[in-house]
Design a protein that fits this description.
CATH superfamily: Transposase IS200-like
Strand content: 5-15%
Strand order of the largest sheet: 2-3-1-4
Number of domains: 1
Shape: globular
Radius of gyration: 17 Å
CATH architecture: 2-Layer Sandwich
Helix content: 40-55%
Number of helices: 9
CATH class: Alpha Beta
CATH topology: Alpha-Beta Plaits
């Protein structure tokens, strides 16, 4: 079945992901990660798109974004990925050798409340699941580290979550993943569907003319 049509609407929340072509490692040294974070900030300053959470992994990344104006997420992502591709090829002397990413970025609408919190936790726990670190806040290349260890300047990259992050954040984000929540989020990515409760997904499909009504399995519990 075809993927859902891409939508780019103000004040919605999106899970955005892309992977390196052939899953090759594109973030190796500290400078590689720092460059990408710098480019996120530049795209944010250009568009005003709110960055709720992110993580940079050796061969892929996740962003949770919320644009202020219709169409701004596309501008943000075009600036980010084009700048990164250009800088990467210049720095590695690989200009003309092929695509850096496996394709266009993927973006998925996200329901608010417990769904957004589940996604935020999923994104920030990526390094723990990949066994790159034991605690989320110890992986320097993501929003968890910035929330806990970042300077005032570094924290400016992040915006407040529309759904408040739980008190006791460090304990919460480091609690083991719930399998049903992992399944639901992975279904969203693999099947190209919004992540949220069924009634909300129906409303998104009807309102935005999306082509699929496939359902996600497993629903986060209310917190």
């Amino acid at each position: 079945m075809p993927r859902l049509a891409r939508v780019d609407l103000a004040n919605e929340v999106y899970h955005v992901i892309n992977r390196a072509n052939g899953r090759m490692t594109i973030f190796r040294e500290e400078d590689d990660y720092l460059l990408f974070e710098k480019l996120i900030m530049e795209a944010k300053e250009l568009t005003g798109v709110r960055v709720i959470a992110y993580v940079i992994m050796p061969n892929h990344w996740h962003l949770i974004l919320s644009p202020i104006r219709d169409g701004d997420m596309g501008i943000f992502m075009h600036r980010l990925t084009n700048s990164h591709t250009r800088n990467y090829h210049v720095l590695t002397k690989t200009i003309g050798t092929g695509h850096l990413y496996q394709g266009r970025y993927k973006s998925f609408l996200v329901d608010s409340d417990s769904y957004l919190l589940s996604l935020l936790k999923y994104v920030e726990r990526n390094p723990v699941r990949a066994k790159l670190t034991e605690k989320c806040e110890d992986w320097k290349w993501g929003s968890s580290w910035r929330r806990v260890n970042g300077t005032t300047k570094e924290k400016k990259l992040l915006d407040s979550s529309p759904t408040p992050i739980p008190h006791g954040y460090i304990k919460w984000v480091n609690e083991s993943d719930k399998e049903e929540e992992l399944t639901a989020i992975r279904n969203s990515v693999n099947k190209g569907v919004p992540f949220g409760k069924s009634s909300w997904v129906d409303a998104m499909v009807a309102e935005h003319g999306l082509e699929s009504t496939r359902r996600l399995t497993g629903r986060p519990k209310k917190r």
